[in-house]
Design brief:
Helix content of chain A: 25-40%
Membrane topology (chain B): Multi-pass membrane protein
Helix content of chain B: 55-70%
Subcellular location (chain B): Membrane
Distance between the termini of chain B: 10 Å
Structural class of chain A: alpha+beta
Order of helices and strands of chain B: HEEEEHHEH
Distance between the termini of chain A: 100 Å
Oligomer: heterodimer
Keywords (chain B): Membrane, Signal, Transmembrane, Transmembrane helix
Structural class of chain B: alpha+beta
Number of helices of chain A: 3
Main location (chain B): membrane
Protein name (chain B): PMP22 protein
Radius of gyration of chain A: 37 Å
Radius of gyration of chain B: 18 Å
Strand order of the largest sheet of chain B: 4-3-2-1-5
């Protein structure tokens, strides 16, 4: 019994400390054209209410470098952008900390901006968590992803074929029904005109009508 | 009559097999030491062979799409042939079957044509066309003839 209580309390404590972790989300990678701008988004999830001391920091590690430099920091309600490093005058804070959003905007991209951007968010007292990274890839023209055009062509051609076949069958059905209605109305006129043939017409009509009680098998004698 | 039917079905299956092989096998262009097709570029360097996914330009994706569509249409046409064999009235023509088979042949022709015209972009100068490419061009007239036979064939008894 005592061991059970000990085990339960250990589990509860570990769960509680897990739930104290902060989860930071960024994208996985971003593709952008040379000369354009890109928005790197960063948001977090925390079990605590948003504190006034929430902080965001972004750091940048170029592709073939071994260490990263810090390029952005938000603390105490104030954003501090890079004013000496590779992103001076190109970085802008476009996030909304009240909505847990710490996104930055980088303008006028260049090939040297290829690299990994890491966002770290802290929401005191919830400070234990892993920073999240997004890779930036700068192209001179955005490549088409494999399989997109293939799938589009296959899908559109098959859709067109199915549409044409459906229209063909619909037209056949409609024309057949129109022919049926015409013949039925002709027979009705015949029924009104010649009363002698009435019973025979009625029998033939029940043979043709699709909603009737079914074809009449045994003929009725004409009076 | 049965012999004729068997011959037609064999022709259709031959066209289908050629289309499948040409779409799947990896030798549209060959150089000494590497081969490439619609899906992979494989090269044998000293020791082993190493395959990269193909260049993702728009035209090679169009060729992939047309080859897959031609295989699909040929399969649908074979299926429709067996359906129409049992449901068509005497004297009727295998119209749908022929239409789908002709569509399949047109797609394989357009795929092979696009590949021929645009292959300068992604094929090195010293490469020669491999057997899968030739099979694609052979499959086109076979499928076309098969489709026309279906259209002029009339169902008997």
């Amino acid at each position: 019994m005592l061991s059970f209580i000990a085990l339960a309390s250990v589990l509860l404590v570990s769960l509680a400390s897990q739930s104290e972790a902060i989860w930071v989300y960024t994208g996985w990678d971003r593709h952008a054209l040379v000369g354009s701008e890109v928005r790197l988004s960063c948001s977090f999830f925390s079990w605590r209410w948003l504190s006034d001391d929430v902080t965001f920091s972004w750091s940048y590690k170029p592709d073939n470098a071994r260490s990263s430099i810090s390029i952005f920091h938000y603390a105490g309600g104030q954003p501090y952008v890079d004013n000496k490093g590779p992103f001076r005058d190109r970085l802008e804070f476009v996030g909304n900390p009240q909505k847990r959003d710490g996104s930055i905007l980088i303008r006028n991209l260049d090939y040297n901006d290829n690299g990994t951007f890491t966002c770290d968010a802290k929401n005191p007292p919830d400070i234990v968590g892993r920073p999240s990274s997004v890779r930036l890839l700068v192209f001179d023209k955005v490549p088409v992803r494999a399989g997109v055009i293939t799938g589009a062509i296959i899908g559109s051609v098959l859709g067109l074929v199915i549409l044409i076949v459906a229209i063909y069958f619909l037209m056949r059905f409609l024309v057949a029904r129109r022919v049926l209605n015409l013949s039925v109305s002709k027979m009705e006129k015949g029924k009104k005109g010649k009363g002698k043939e009435g019973s025979q017409q009625r029998q033939m009509w029940s043979l043709f009508s699709p909603r009737g009680p079914g074809p009449v098998r045994h003929p009725r004698p004409v009076q | 009559m049965l012999l004729l039917l068997l011959g037609i079905v064999l022709l259709h299956i031959a066209a289908l097999v050629l289309l499948c092989v040409s779409t799947i096998v990896s030798t549209w262009v060959e150089t000494s030491g590497s081969s490439a097709d619609l899906w992979l570029n494989c090269s044998t360097t000293n020791g082993g062979s190493h395959c990269d996914p193909a260049n993702t330009s728009e035209w090679i994706q169009a060729v992939q799409a047309t080859m897959i569509l031609s295989v699909i249409f040929s399969v649908i046409s074979l299926f429709l042939f067996f359906c129409q064999l049992f449901t068509l009235q005497k004297g009727g023509r295998f119209f749908f079957t022929g239409i789908f088979q002709i569509l399949a042949s047109l797609f394989v022709m357009s795929g092979a044509t696009i590949y021929t015209v645009k292959s300068a972009d992604w094929v090195p100068e010293a490469a020669s066309y491999g057997y899968a490419y030739i099979l694609a061009w052979v499959a086109f007239p076979i499928a076309l003839i098969s489709g026309f036979i279906y259209i002029i064939l009339r169902k008997r008894e």
